[in-house]
Design a protein that fits this description.
295 residues, alpha+beta, Immunoglobulin-like, 2 domains, 6-stranded mixed beta sheet, 5-stranded mixed beta sheet, 6 helices, elongated, binds copper (II) ion
């Protein structure tokens, strides 16, 4: 019995689609997702992986099929058929990638917006709608600050919708060759490692002390340039207690590869303990002062 070729094509198409859909969700290429924002980025990545798997199987499948099916028969020294082109086929293989690119462009813009990427632009709209206020563009050496009533407009991932519910933990981040320095404005703690409580939004206010750096949290799926003389922001909500790498992702000099530290996500109680331990440790002579004042 001979199976009609359109049935074979249909079955091959369904199989290819099912394999692509499965692999798009089970590629295992990403580290664990430890922030509320990670699911957005992973959704986009998984879609791209699904499409890439389908295209890979289609192209490689056709090549392998052709190599076997159209192999030269023994003793056959005739020329191959003269094929000049196939207009419908060429239209199809141009139209499909165009549609894919449009879908990915719209989807990735949506993800960027959801993570608060357009928030700094919203600040610009805010500026524009208050144009009776003075907007000043200042040149400070080679760095530019845009200011309105002394207020800087930050770059980067600003207020994400996840932040609207509770007040974020603010941490100032300074990137220098070759370390990250974290300052907690509420308590005055200065640390070389970042410590945050789980499930509370964090807002990093970042600036560079010397050259360009980039603050990257792979497990949180976020990365932001850190620029001298200009503030940038990064917001996220940690969802899993643990220790995660903080990596500089901008070639910043000879020891760039060593510009790493850790982000520790604590339970709420552990974080309070860490705050307490470090507040005492970093207040110089506080006990001595207390003793002195009793005398
Ligand atoms: Cu670096």
């Amino acid at each position: 019995m001979k199976i009609p070729s359109n049935i074979v094509t249909l079955i091959a198409g369904i199989t290819l689609t099912l394999i692509s859909l499965w692999y798009g969700q089970n590629h295992g290429l990403m580290p664990i997702a430890a922030s509320a924002e990670a699911a957005e980025v992973d959704g986009l990545f998984n879609l791209m992986m699904t499409i890439a798997t389908g295209l890979f199987l289609l192209v490689e499948g056709v090549i392998i099929y052709s190599v076997i099916k159209f192999r030269r028969k023994e003793g056959d020294t005739t020329d191959g058929p003269p094929i000049e082109g196939n207009v419908p086929l060429e239209i199809v293989w141009t139209a499909i990638p165009t549609v894919i690119v449009f879908i990915l462009a719209i989807y990735s813009f949506e993800v960027y917006n959801t993570l608060g990427g357009l928030d700094p632009m919203a600040s610009h709209d805010h500026l524009a709608s208050h144009n009776h206020h003075e907007m000043v563009a200042m040149d400070e050496g080679n760095s530019q600050l845009i200011a309105m009533n002394g207020e800087k407009v930050a770059l980067g991932l600003g207020q994400s919708p996840y932040l609207e519910e509770s007040s974020p933990l603010n941490v100032n981040v300074n990137g220098i060759q070759y370390a990250w320095i974290f300052t907690y404005p509420d308590t005055g703690i200065v640390s070389g490692e970042l410590h945050v409580p789980v499930d509370r939004p964090v807002q990093l206010n970042m600036s560079g002390g010397d050259v360009l750096h980039a603050f990257w949290l792979p497990e949180f799926r976020i990365k932001q340039d850190v620029i001298p003389g200009r503030e940038s922001q990064l917001t996220f909500t940690p969802t899993k207690v643990g220790q995660y790498p903080v990596i500089c992702a901008e070639l910043c000099g000879a020891y760039h590869g060593g510009m790493k530290t850790t982000l520790t996500v604590h339970s709420a109680e552990d974080y309070q303990q860490w705050l307490q331990d470090n507040t005492i440790a970093q207040t110089p002579n506080s006990e001595q002062l207390a003793v002195n004042s009793e005398q």
